[in-house]
Structure formats: structure tokens, C-alpha cells
Amino acid sequence: MPPNDIGSHETTLLAKVREKGGHAGNVTLQRELGWNTDTYWSVRDRLVDSGQLELGRGKGGSVSLVVRADAVSAIAAGSEAQSGTPTSVCESELYDPVAGVLRGAWAKDMRFRSHVVEVTARQGRRDTGGTWTRPDIVVAALRVFPHVPGKFFDLVTFELKASNAISVTAVFEALAHRRAATQAYVWLHLPAGVERDDTSALLERINEEARRQGVGLIIGSDPADYSSWDVQLRAVRVEPDPEFLNEFIAQQLPALARDELAQWFR
Hints:
It is a single chain. The chain has about 270 residues and is of the alpha+beta class. The chain folds into two domains: about 5-70, Winged helix-like DNA-binding domain superfamily/Winged helix DNA-binding domain (Arc Repressor Mutant, subunit A); about 90-265, Trna Endonuclease, Chain: A, domain 1. The protein has eight helices and nine strands. α1 (about 5-20) crosses α3. The chain is globular, with a radius of gyration of 19 Å. The relative contact order is 0.13.
């Protein structure tokens, strides 16, 4: 993109966010601006790096205008009800669509320089270290920041639950993974046909426990559509013991993925 176009695009994106009240979702902004994926993420990232936008949660991720602390106002982001999603899906049917979004829109939103996504739930009876040691999906990622020297490695785990298997136990399963991971998430499938009022007390309890434990929480109505993912809590990043991290990678990731990770730091 020519330099003149970059400045023009940044001005346009900032104006659109202001038009939305200072906060808007990535999906909405890209759709209304009519930009292709690469253009949108590139311009958004430049504005984040320059301190004019900050990242937020929500379905598909969001951005907010950065304002002085004494001028901050509370802005509520609305959400649209999704339809046409099956109300009964088994957990194994969630793995591939969720992994696909993690490789694409989610990785872009998280600003990964390089990443590998593996469905680790399908390992049969192979020993991986005991109860609750095998996540459903693992994301290994490399991040760099324009104002911080060095490269940063993340290993993010996901524990998925179908709508008929949602319980607070999922938080503790995810927490067990964090022994050797930098971040751990619980991903819950709540189809559009399921009324949240029916599960509100349980979801509130899960949210409270996840917040207390530093576990991330995502609720999605369509596993294949990032715009339906409601990121309720971002996982707290921790630094696991390098020995545990190394052992986890050796046990959970296939040889090709391990080789790619090794190339990142050569």
C-alpha cells in the first residue's frame, strides 16, 4: 500500500470508529469499510502500534479509540443474535471449525508473526502425562512488538465443550494445561437456538471461576465464524517452567510442528 494510501486509510478507520461511538468490532468495521482482509488488519495494527487504538474483546474482537483517562466514557457494544446453527453438536465436531478460525481470523486478531495450530484431542490412547494433561487444541505462536526488543513465544491451550457438556469443571481442566502453557482458554458452544437465560447461572459461575483462575473464556454460537465468538475473558499470560514447556511440546505436537517451532528461533 503506498504511503499516501496508508495515511488516508488510517484516517478513514479512525473516523469510522468515532462514528460507532469510539468502539466497534473488527468484523463490522471491515464489512462497512469494504476493505479486503489484509488491508484492514494492516491498517488496524498500525493504529494500535501508534497508540491510537486499543484492542478489546467481543465477537470477532474489537477496537476502541484511545482517549485520556479523564475523558473515558463507558461504551456498550451490542451483539446480534445468530441463527441457523444446529442446537446439538458433539464435541469432536467442534475441533476442525474452531481450529480453522484459530489459524485465520483469531491469529490475525492476536497479531501473531507465525503460528501453528494442532488438534491434540485426537491422539488415541497415547500417554500424554495423566488426567487433564491433553488439551483439545494447542496453538504455538511467535509474537514481536515494535517497541519491545526480542521474540516472544506463546503456547495457548483450548478446552472445548459442547452445549450439552458445559460445566465449571472445564475451567479446572484448562487450568491443569497451564502447568506447561503460557495461556489457557475454555471454549463453550452455545448455539443460537439455546436460550442464554436457561444457562445464565451456570455461565456466570464459569465466568467467575475462570476470572479467578486467570483462564480465558470464549462462548461461540458458530464454531466456524469468528464474528459469533464472544471473548468474555482474555487468558492471563504466565511463564511456565521451561522444562515443563519443552516436555509438553515433545508430547503433544507432531514432529513437523516441532521442526517449524525450532526454525522460529534460529
